[in-house]
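Subgroup meeting minutes
Present: P.N., E.W., G.H.
Scribe: E.W.

1. P.N. recapped why we're keeping a running log of single-chain structure predictions: easier to compare across weeks, and new members can see raw inputs and outputs side by side.
2. G.H. added today's entry (135 aa).
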Amino acid sequence: MLPTRELIDSLAVHAAVDTETLASVVDALSDCEEAATACAAGMLGEQDIDRMRSSVLHDLDCGDVVVTTRRLLTRATGDDSALVAAQLEVCLMACRRSHETCSRTAAAHEHCRLCAAATHRAADACRRALQALRG
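Output recorded in log:
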């Protein structure tokens, strides 16, 4: 797999945020998608699945939103700043929801602990990108 920064630097278009910030967000979102998807699958195998139903849904929502955000950021140009900002806001919301629900069960479930950490990093990355985008 190509390093994200190298891939972004190879594009002829200019991103709405600097390439270092963009690469760090894309990497954090990739990690988050993997963790949220794995966590949802892990919760489906737990004995207390009825109690974890909303957490599963939050993880699945988060995984879908971060994939869309990552894809948009990878191809976004400076002309797309309003769309990128809106998508980053949605991504931040999805990461927070997943983080909140997984944090509650992180002590009992390793997949929730890993997901809570990944969603926290992704939310921070989205915040940094929004700050860079808004100047």
